[in-house]
Amino acid sequence: MSDQSFPGGHDCRAREIVDRVGDKWSLYVIATLGEETLRFTELKRRIDGISQRMLTVTLRNLERDGIIVRTMYPVMPPRVEYSVTPLGCELLGAVTALVGWAETRVETIEKNRAAYDERAAEQTEAFG
Amino acid sequence: MSDQSFPGGHDCRAREIVDRVGDKWSLYVIATLGEETLRFTELKRRIDGISQRMLTVTLRNLERDGIIVRTMYPVMPPRVEYSVTPLGCELLGAVTALVGWAETRVETIEKNRAAYDERAAEQTEAFG
DNA sequence: ACTCATGGTTACCTCCAGGTGCCCAAGGCA
DNA sequence: TGCCTTGGGCACCTGGAGGTAACCATGAGT
Fold first, then answer.
1. Residues 76-115, chain A, touching B (beta carbon < 8 A)
2. A5 burial via Cβ count (<10 Å: 0-12, 13-18, 19+)
3. Which helix (H) or strand (E) holds A10?
4. Which residue is closest, via its CA, to the C1' of D19?
5. % pLDDT > 70, chain A
6. Distance B17 CA to D8 C1' (A)
7. Closest CA to A65 of B112, B104, B106, B98
8. Cβ contacts of A24 within 8 Å, gap of 6 or more
9. Is B95 or B4 the better-scoring residue by pLDDT?
């Protein structure tokens, strides 16, 4: 798998970026930090539903990729700030385009799903 | 969660599209069908490593969303053709932009990861 | 002495995406 | 009679993503 070529001559390593963006919380973290630099607790407060652990894990992964940067001030209590790097800002831009398209089509897709489910139910009813 | 607003006023339902694209095989299926209409077995042959079940599952989901279309010919042995819809073509376009960006940055990200891991190893060595 | 806040870490558990393998219909063909 | 084909369905299993909760150091406030 690791050297599988993407159809059209694309590199499958690019899938890693889609995976990173596609996990449960990265998109929220990137988008939230894209607006302003924030501390850990404030970030947690803004992203409704995220657990402390998942925020830590997500931040670590994004930091490892160089998408966000972590700044620690050696004071007590600890003060840690997170912000997007230029690389992360680029990613945010690319993702925003995808999300923007998705928003314009989300209703179409939901109608498609409903229609599909209805057809499936009819099939089951007729032959089930 | 279902009514969580996306930072910046975005709708979290858009996450569903990212999830669809972010799963393991959808991207390959869309990209492969984006090149030409294909039958089930030929599609399976082109996407290296996919299992029969996962191809079926992925195709069903994409069909349900209206991203691909399934055409069945009632002959024996069965003949079924899959192709992308205009909606799927749009999605492919949006995703291609993201993948394109990812490809130009994949080496940067890998260097970032290596540097991060090295720093982490030094920390462990010094204090572990 | 006790409590609170920050920014975590760790152990533990659950759930499901994804993988494997067997079964199926129906006709052709030897 | 038995085996090949296509396009699946179904049962079962595992690994890992993600959730829960407890613990931690340190200093400041009272």
1. 87, 90-91, 94-95, 97-99, 101-103, 105-106, 108-110, 112-113
2. exposed
3. strand A10-11
4. A51
5. 88
6. 26
7. B112
8. A54
9. B95
Nucleotides of D under 7 A from a protein CB: 5-11, 17-22, 25-28
Q: Domain locations in chain A?
A: 5-127
Q: Which two tokens stand for residue A109?
A: 């897709």
pLDDT over 60 (residue B84): yes
d(CA B113, CA A117): 43
Domain B5-127 -> CATH class: mainly alpha
SS (H, E, C) chain B: CCCCEECCCEECCHHHHHHHHHCCCHHHHHHHHHHCCEEHHHHHHHCCCCCHHHHHHHHHHHHHCCCEEEEEECCCCCEEEEEECHHHHHHHHHHHHHHHHHHHHHHHHHHHHHHHHHHHHHHHHHHC
Q: What is the pLDDT of residues B26-80, one digit of tens each?
A: 999 999 999 999 999 999 999 999 999 999 999 999 999 999 999 999 999 999 9
Q: What is the pLDDT of residues A41-71, one digit of tens each?
A: 999 999 999 999 999 999 999 999 999 999 9
Is the CB of residue B10 less than 8 Å away from at least one CB of chain A?
Answer: yes
CA count, 13 A, side-chain hemisphere, B98: 31
**For A4, which DSSP code?**
P
d(CA A27, CA A94) in angstroms, rounded, equals 12
The type of residue at A101 is W
Q: How far is it, in rounded angstroms, from Cα A108 to Cα A78? A: 47
Rg over CA atoms, chain B: 20
| Rounded Cα–Cα distance for residues B104 and B99 (Å) | 9
